[in-house]
Amino acid sequence: MRDIEIDQSEFDAAMERVQAFARDASPVMSLVSALMADAIEENFAAEGRPKWMGLSKGTLKRRREDAGTGKILQRSGRLAGSVVQSHDATSARVGTNVVYAAIHQFGGTIQRHPMSGYVRLRKAKNGMIMRQADHPHLAVFAKNGHKSVKVVKWTRSTGWTIKIPARPFLALTETDNVAIEEEVSTYLRQLIDG
Predict the structure, then answer these.
(1) Are 146 and 120 in contact (CB under 8 A)?
(2) 151: domain range?
(3) pLDDT tens column, 36-61
């Protein structure tokens, strides 16, 4: 009779690594959250994947007057710069806490109700209504007690509606999903191989 001796130390070590991974998948979750953040950054750079709806004629006109202020959803850079990634032992997340992010992600309608009130405009040293330096067609408003008030008049607006199309920036493409799956598979193979 022959004795067969099986060395399962490598198998046992691999199973220990898998069990440790099952308890705390933080390393791979960190990798996934970084890949998702890269995809979101790419969405902003490409102005959507697929392309977002273009800007309205009025917005394009204002941007030309402002001397070209950048890409869609990036006028100030605040929204794109607010995207953060996080992870824990079981999940990976990417998101933003900017209040207006949801209206851009999902689209919607903003209803401005009629308003009325006093308008106080500042006057320049020459007695004329002061204009904004970067927007010469707009006047400069004054606070209640300001010493250089030129005009005080009652005004009323009728209200208006703003329709904002959905421009999903927190989105992954199929290519992103495949890349994440490949990275996770590579990580798991290395984990088992030791």
Answers:
(1) yes
(2) 114-158
(3) 999 999 999 999 999 999 888 877 77
Q: How many domains does the chain have?
A: 2
How many CB atoms lie under 10 A from the CB of residue 114?
9
Do 79 and 153 share a domain, yes or no? no
How many CA atoms, within 13 angstroms, populate the side-chain half-sphere of residue 114?
5
Same domain, 85 and 20: yes
Q: Which of 130-139, 170-179, 185-194 has the lowest mean pLDDT?
A: 130-139
In a domain, 119, yes or no: yes
**Contact status, residue 136 vs residue 126, Cβ threshold 8 Å:** no
The tally of CA atoms less than 13 A away on the side-chain side of residue 151 is: 11
172 and 84 co-located in one domain: yes
Quote the CA–CA distance of 5 and 131 in Å, as a whole number: 91
Q: Are 192 and 17 in contact (CB under 8 A)?
A: yes
Cβ–Cβ < 8 Å for 159, 113: yes
